[in-house]
Hints:
Blueprint: H1 10-29, H2 41-52, H3 60-85, H4 88-91, H5 100-113, H6 117-120, H7 127-137, H8 142-170, H9 178-210
Amino acid sequence: MDSFWDLFKPEELVRYGGLALVLIIILVENGIFFGFFLPGDSLLFTAGLLCYLDVLNVDLAWLVVGISASATAGYYAGYYFGFKTGEALYKKEDSLFFKKKYIYTAEIFYKKYGGMALIMGRFLPIVRTFAPILAGVVKVDHKTFFVYNITGAILWPAVVVTAGYYVGSVFPNALNYLNYIVIGFIVVTAIPIINNYRAQAKEKKAGSMEK
Length: 211
């Protein structure tokens, strides 16, 4: 890699570390709180695209299975971290790799959608990282968590990786426009997060007006 910023470039990550690095990043980004800044959706899409172009030398089915396994393990890591730390996480001071606002964002999303947040959150940055941690904090039943975890871990790569593979098959020159595609992913997935922030700001404003 030429620079630190290559960590945020899905194509560079796939070319540099192959499948192994993809799986490690997915594990960390899916539940270990300091991994929230790593690429998730864009990395999966890029992996699917490069899989079709034979840059990533792995069968599509095995790619999806491997990512599902890493995503499942990441959620369990987040769940048990939240389970052990509990309410202490809300008292933790902000740092470079941790912001309490991320926990509150996941909390709003979780309160709105319940257990389904663990599935839907897979498709949203930040929520994807902190939803399993929050599930551990509120001590979601293990069996319930297992069902939502497995379901989301299968659906997420099945949709996003396959989309990248399909785009590669339809548009052979898609790699030339990958940067624009990645930017599009960031914009689209950021919309629900922005809405959550707005909802949180409105609640705070309403609360201050009542006082």
